[in-house]
Design a protein that fits this description.
By secondary structure, the chain is mainly alpha-helical. The chain has one domain. Helix 1 packs antiparallel against helix 2, helix 1 crosses helix 6 and helix 2 crosses helix 5. The protein is globular, with a radius of gyration of 15 Å.
Length: 121
């Protein structure tokens, strides 16, 4: 298994662990943003810029757009990437009912699929 695939698996397991324990890598990082970063759609600097823009809306008393909307509007994500991240976010949420063995097997399959999709883009 390549180093890149191992790193993707490790990062995906970290997402599951964060969800399992109700934690985030950083209090300012949304689950959507963390997944987008782990999948390589955006980098940490782009996420931080989107979060800062979101805070600007809050500071003005406006309803802040979601991180995905900001990243899409800024041209940092395309519609396909947005949908992939939302799908993964949904999978993470729904996987909490799976056994550990099933969860890791499913995680491994999804990581491999996402890696193939990333190569195809």
């Amino acid at each position: 298994m390549s180093t890149e695939k191992i790193e993707l698996q490790r990062d995906r397991m970290r997402i599951y662990a964060m969800k399992l324990f109700g934690l985030q890598l950083s209090p300012t990082v949304s689950m959507f943003g963390e997944i987008a970063t782990v999948l390589g759609c955006i980098d940490q600097n782009q996420l931080q810029a989107a979060l800062a823009l979101q805070e600007t809306f809050r500071g003005n008393g406006s309803k802040p757009p979601r991180i995905g909307e900001i990243l899409l509007d800024e041209g940092l994500l395309n519609e396909g990437q947005l949908q992939s991240i939302l799908d993964e976010q949904s999978r993470v949420s729904s996987s909490m009912d799976e056994s550990d063995e099933t969860r890791f097997a499913n995680l491994r399959r999804r990581a491999e699929r996402l890696q193939r999709e990333k190569v195809d883009q």
